[in-house]
Amino acid sequence: MPALLPILALIILLMTGCNNATDSTERMAPQPIGGDDICHVCGMFITEFEGPKGQAFMQSHRDARKFCSTLEMFVFLQQPENQTQLRHAYVHDVAVTPWEAPKDDAFIPAADAWYVVGHDRRGSMGHTLAPFSSHERAEQFAEVHSGEIITYDDIDLELLARLGRHEGSGHAAHSMAQ
User: Which end of the chain is more exposed for a tag (fewer CB within 10 A), N or C?
Assistant: First the structure.
């Protein structure tokens, strides 16, 4: 039996070295968005457009999927084949970064954010969800730009389709979340 210990140790070492998958519970840090990064959905250069961006970490991938808008990211994440693969996602907190050119140090966990929908600001593909780390800052934004406040759990394909068609603002957007 002692003669087998080096062989078992070698097998374990080889198995861990060949495994490129990441631990599904490991939270990856947000990645910077550079001038060469393109949107995972539409293929456009992300930094050429204003508005909050998103990035998602999927199972078995260390690199983030990056998106030119929060709307594009949520459309991707709501697809059935992606819903079960999501580890975690980040969005820009637009309370602490300029809408015109969001900064890399302003990413917050998407699941913890408050979102304003139906507002008058535009992102790369038209309407986009405006994320905030605090409900108070979301309320302040909605007072100036109109719209309704929702949570991560309120986001579904029906809401995203209506926002993508530029339907709804104010109370109409709120009813979309229900």
Answer: N
Q: pTM of the full predicted structure?
A: 0.80
* pLDDT digits 0-9 by tens, 48-84: 999 999 999 999 888 999 999 999 999 999 999 999 9
CA distances from 71 to 31, 128, 131, 166 (A): 19, 5, 11, 12
Distance CA 75, CA 161 (A): 8
Cα 28 to Cα 30: distance, rounded to the nearest angstrom = 7
| Paired residues of 54 in beta bridges | 67, 91
- As beta bridge partners, residue 65 has 56
| Nearest residue to 91 (alpha-carbon basis) of 174, 152, 165, 35 | 152
pLDDT of residue 43: 94
Instruction: For residue 19, give both structure tokens.
Output: 């495994």
